[in-house]
């Protein structure tokens, strides 16, 4: 199952609590409902979502079905998150507006930042408080810069 789908399933507090309980012991719907203080119908609905996501399996024991966690799915999810966290960050600042040259610059591009900064780390202060030197170091020029104080004009 896709990482985002698993995270959405686990994002519900009740489903997360059910998973935590089932990691310590196998329980039937009635026992889960009692421990969580919610109805059996509510637990059954959450169990259904967890099962469809591959996080739980059920085993019939007499009249009741006892549920347990598919730990392999949790391990795969943890590994996917670890891989995501291990991705290297970009070595330099790249403005998405500037990197899209040559691509259709329709409405989507208008929603992006309007910066043209090559070295935003050199800018200091609030908009309108940047020195001419900072603007020059950032942009290479001083025209049409968002940090330029409009009152000076």
UniProtKB/TrEMBL annotation:
Outline the extent of the HTH arsR-type domain: 1-89
Q: Which domain of life is it from?
A: Bacteria
Q: Which InterPro entries match?
A: ArsR-like_HTH, HTH_ArsR_DNA-bd_dom, HTH_MetalResp_TranReg, WH-like_DNA-bd_sf, WH_DNA-bd_sf
Tell me which UniProt keywords the record has, alphabetically: DNA-binding, Transcription, Transcription regulation
Q: Which Pfam families does the entry link to? A: HTH_5
Matches recorded under CDD domains: HTH_ARSR
Matches recorded under Gene3D superfamilies:
Winged helix-like DNA-binding domain superfamily/Winged helix DNA-binding domain
User: What one GO molecular function would you report for this record?
Assistant: DNA-binding transcription factor activity
Q: Does the keyword Ribonucleoprotein apply?
A: no
SUPFAM superfamilies, per database record: Winged helix' DNA-binding domain (SSF46785)
For this entry, the protein name equals DNA-binding transcriptional regulator, ArsR family
């Amino acid at each position: 199952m896709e990482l985002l789908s698993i995270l959405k399933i686990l994002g519900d507090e009740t489903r997360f609590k059910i998973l935590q309980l089932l990691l310590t012991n196998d329980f039937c719907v009635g026992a889960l409902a009692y421990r969580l203080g919610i109805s059996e119908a509510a637990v059954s609905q959450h169990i259904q979502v967890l099962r469809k996501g591959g996080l739980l399996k059920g085993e019939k024991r007499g009249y009741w079905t006892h549920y347990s966690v598919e730990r392999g799915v949790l391990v795969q999810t943890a590994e996917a998150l670890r891989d995501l966290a291990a991705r290297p960050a970009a070595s330099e600042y790249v403005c998405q507006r500037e990197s899209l040259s040559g691509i259709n610059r329709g409405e989507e591009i208008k929603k992006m930042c309007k910066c043209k900064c090559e070295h935003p780390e050199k800018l200091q202060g609030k908009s309108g408080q940047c020195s001419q030197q900072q603007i020059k170091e950032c942009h290479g020029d001083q025209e049409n810069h968002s940090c330029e104080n409009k009152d000076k004009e």
